[in-house]
Design brief:
118 residues
Length: 118
Amino acid sequence: MADAPLTEPAIAGVLAKVIAFAPGFAGAVLSLAFVETLTIRGRMVAVLVGLLSAIFLAPAICSLLDLFWPGDLPGTVAKAILFLTGLCAMGCLPKLLAWLQKLAGDPLSLLKVKVGPA
């Protein structure tokens, strides 16, 4: 069975999906301006985390905000949320990595409970 050739509407549809997350990608790239200590691999991971947070977290934020927004949520607000999610994900990355490193050293620390006076 031969593969169907890519047509212009199919390519336009894929490009429309990719361009929808351009503000999140731009926010992730802009966040690199605030960090000087990352290696090239760390920068690539930071941009990937920013982009993935814009892809998965921003729509959830937009849906939650849409519940309280009077009328429909404007597209410009959704794009701003995409951008800010990509930008702010970089700020959370070092804290998340430090927590994961601590957790990897002592996984049972999640189960520790203090009993008695502090």
